[in-house]
Amino acid sequence: MIENIDHIILAVEDLESAEDNYKKIFGINPVWRGVHNELGTSNVLFNFENTYFELLTPTGSGIGADLVNNAIKKNGDGLLGLVLGTKNVNAFNKKATESGHLLSEVTSGEGKSAENKKRKWLYQFLPPEITRGIFSFIIEHKSDGLPCIKHGKSTVKKLEQVVVKTNDCDGFIEVYRDLFGIRLALDSFVEAWKKRMLFFRLNKTTIEVIEEKNHKVLPTDSLWGLAWGVENIYSARERLLKNNVVVSNVKPGVKKDTLVATIKSHTNNVPTLLIEHTKKA
Questions:
Q1: Secondary element (H or E) of residue 81
Q2: Domain layout of the chain by residue ranges
Q3: pLDDT by residue (tens digit) across 139-169?
């Protein structure tokens, strides 16, 4: 039903500054700069092997501008949304409705670039019992894909992990496995952390879910951080340092045959990790 993590949305107050930050982090240029006139927002898109990354800012009036303005007012720049892709959004609407969820109608959307190029899509907004605190919707693209970017050994090439925190793993499984149809690859209690952890896998990306019980009565999820894959983490670290990006030393990752480094600046408040898989497939 759900084919991929279509894209991640980062809400930013200053689009130009955020674009400059992520050009340094990713080591590539964006493939799109555009506006959503009906939503009151503007965006910049970076494309990767398995997803794309959207910087979104308010530039007018509309529900999109209201959403971003409220998020920035509450938390400053930061992760805003997790968008899931499907080949048939109407089929998803039918399944979710038959499962007892009250959904709005499927809506059409459009973005226009500075060069007057257009991107079109259909999207399904989701009710609170499905989103559970994360701004999320289902998208079916009706235009050609974004331009591909050539990635070097020091540049970011793919999204490895999206880290989510929840107070209700069982409910999360009901949504992401049972409704969305995403494969649950791991359900484990980590003794060292005294926490339950879930791994969902799709389009070569892991949604890592960490359960943290809290005082909230309602099931609540939140986007926490991202991990990006690189071909050579030492080359990536050297490139970042040359661009005055603060990054930790490289160390072995928790997962076997990985190396990791933490990016500590230029992330617009997003906890960010680089990962290299040392054992190539």
A1: strand 78-85
A2: 4-141, 156-277
A3: 999 998 898 888 899 999 999 999 999 999 9
Cα–Cα distance for residue pair 87/99, rounded to 1 Å: 20
Per-residue burial over 158-183, b if 16 or more Cβ lie within 10 Å, else e, is bbbbbbbbbbbbebbbbbbeebbebe
Summary mean pLDDT of the chain: 95
Q: Token pair of 168, please?
A: 């209700």
Q: Write the CA distances from 166 to 78, 208, 248, integer angstroms.
A: 18, 10, 27
CATH fold match for the domains 4-141 and 156-277: yes
Q: Which residues in the chain show pLDDT less than 50?
A: none
Radius of gyration of the chain (CA): 19
Q: Which two tokens stand for residue 146?
A: 């974004």
β-sheet with 156-166: strand ranges across: 183-190, 195-202, 205-211, 156-166, 221-230, 272-277, 258-263, 251-252
Which tokens hold the place of 85?
Answer: 């892709």
The candidate with the shortest Cα–Cα distance to 4, out of 178, 265, 200, is 200
Q: Which CATH number fits domain 4-141: 1.20.1270.60, 3.40.50.1000, 3.10.180.10, 3.10.20.440?
A: 3.10.180.10
